Amino acid sequence: MGADPDAGSARRQKRNRELWDTFEKVIGICRREKTDLLLIAGDLFHRQPLLRELKEVNAMFASLDATRVVLIAGNHDYIRRDSYYRTFSWSGNVAFLGEEQLSKVEYPELSLAVYGLSYHSREIREALYEETEPSDRQRYRILLAHGGDEEHIPIHKKELLSMGYDYIALGHIHKPGAPDARMIYAGALEPIDSGDTGPHGYVEGELSENGLKTRFVPAATREYRKLQIPVTEETTGYALSEKIRSAIEAEGVEDIYRIRVTGQRDPDIRFDLRAMDPFGNIVELTDETRPAYDFERLMAQNKGNFLGDYIRSFQGAKKDSLEYQALCDGVQALLETGNQ
Questions:
Q1: Which of 74, 229, 245, 228 is CA-nearest to residue 149?
Q2: Per-residue CA distances from 308 to 174, 302, 315, 339 (Å)
Q3: Looking at the DSSP assignment, which residues form a beta bridge with residue 94?
Q4: Following DSSP, what letter does each residue of 77-118 receive, concatenated?
Q5: What is the pLDDT of residue 330?
Q6: Mean pLDDT across the stretch 74-78?
């Protein structure tokens, strides 16, 4: 929470609310299924949480009669000197592992210990999770770990997996991913910028004497998607608009799109992309088309002048090369300015 997706767009306020709505949906699933444990591996907030926001989140946690909650602070919501994390009183079913060094909470009724630490600065370059071996009397051990790059607690997969944890819940990367079957990034519940494409959700898991079972559960209200719309010399502006509309309807009008228009168009056609957002859900629409000039004809018609010489200098350029792109751009500029 606290991110500002689609800043400057008409969707901004709605998207901000959707971040909270999706979190509330997960809380509701925990309540309905009487989930034993809810793990939050840092960056519950995209910035320093406000006191009223912590109170709202805590009220949701307190509504879980059967669920224990364990969370840590990540690099975005790190515990700075004036952080409300330092003095906030959590519900009795919540364990906030706020220390700078690895600490734990034990649940003997589940034969479980959960380990973790919180960020007290934006960057931590030491591999802190590998410095301390887990020590407890519980049958199962889980680690909450936030980071994985050189500036945010480097994680060495082989060493960490050898330390005896049954499951390592990873935070920091916004997209879901699994370096190992026992080491999983859940990612963010909702995408928070247009480059954050693909499905988003949470990891559902079961840890028992039969081993570990996990699955990724999509939960986001919408996705950011990339689309490529090809055109030909026959494609008009109206036809392109209809192709964009049809493509979005096929993929889902609830999602948000970055669209590239590619291919060769009629040299006399100009696409007015400002009028091609039929559902108001395109955040980026770029025209990467090239005019389909008949360069041989143009060169013959302009033999001996600058335009003809310019085309001749690019003879043999392949259509997917930078040289061909320069040829198209240059010819277009010369024809439009009449500088032949």
A1: 74
A2: 52, 5, 11, 11
A3: 69
A4: S---TT-GGGT----TTEEE---SS-EEEEEGGGTEEEEE--
A5: 85
A6: 96
Residue of higher predicted confidence among 45 and 338: 45
| Side chain identity, residue 212 | L
- Residue 187, Cβ neighbours under 10 Å: how many? 24
Dihedral sign from CA coordinates of 121, 190, 71, 132? negative
For the residues 194-215, what does the mean pLDDT come to? 92
Decide if 194 contacts 224 (C-beta within 8 A): yes
* Alpha-carbon gap, residue 303 to 305, rounded angstroms: 6
340 pLDDT more than 60? no
Query: Which is more confident, 254 or 9?
Result: 254
Q: How far is CA 163 from CA 114, 133, 167, 323, in A?
A: 14, 6, 11, 55
> What string of H, E and C letters represents the secondary structure of 266-280?
CCCCCCCHHHCCCCC
Sign of the torsion angle spanned by Cα atoms 251, 254, 258, 259: positive
Give 319-328 contacts, CB < 8 A, sequence gap 24+: 324/290, 325/290, 327/295, 328/290, 328/291, 328/293
The dihedrals phi and psi of 57, each to the nearest 5 degrees, come to -65, -45
Cβ atoms within 10 Å of 256's Cβ, excluding its own: 24
From residue 15, alpha-carbon distances to 32, 47, 190, 270 in Å are 26, 16, 9, 33
Q: How much helix, strand and coil, in percent to the nearest 5, is found in the chain?
A: 30, 25, 45
The predicted-structure confidence for 112-169, as pLDDT tens digits, reads as follows: 999 999 999 999 999 999 988 899 999 999 999 999 999 999 999 999 999 999 999 9
Q: Which helix (H) or strand (E) is 309 found in, with range?
A: helix 306-313
Nearest CA-CA partner of 89 in 46, 57, 48: 57
Average pLDDT over all residues of the chain: 91
Phi, psi of 38 (to 5 degrees): -115, 120
Answer yes or no: are the C-beta atoms of 292 and 233 closer than 8 Å.
yes
Helix, coil or strand: residue 216: strand
Q: Which residues contact 294 (CB under 8 A, 6 or more apart)?
A: none
